[in-house]
Amino acid sequence: xxxxxxxxxxxxxxxxxxxxxxxxxxxxxxxxxxxxxxxxxxxxxxxxxxxxxxxxxxxxxxxxxxxxxxxxxxxxxxxxxxxxxxxxxxxxxxxxxxxxxxxxxxxxxxxxxxxxxxxxxxxxxxxxxxxxxxxxxxxx
Length: 140
Hints:
With 140 residues, this protein is an alpha+beta fold. Helices cover 39% and strands 19% of the residues.
């Protein structure tokens, strides 16, 4: 009988984790994307709960959602203001639209910097992650 309490082969959320060599390749790709964004002058975050800036991360899943991603993370101040609008049911507040437009514009900038730097990348959105950029290959 196998012990199901061992989560070493599980990604966050319990999904099967990609093999170590795949994760190592993803880490190299993420580091290269991080360096390209920094070289362009963008602040880059590698922790989920850091401040605002370009965020680069590795999704450890073995399935099709696994890979390397980047997105623009808006400031905590803007995010809190939008949350206040939603809590107060001010859904027509221009700040809500502005937050979406700023996020889309900055994600586009992140994508363009990566493509200009030779990466293969494109916009990515599904029901599980906010709109972001999926990075599939480093410059050759």
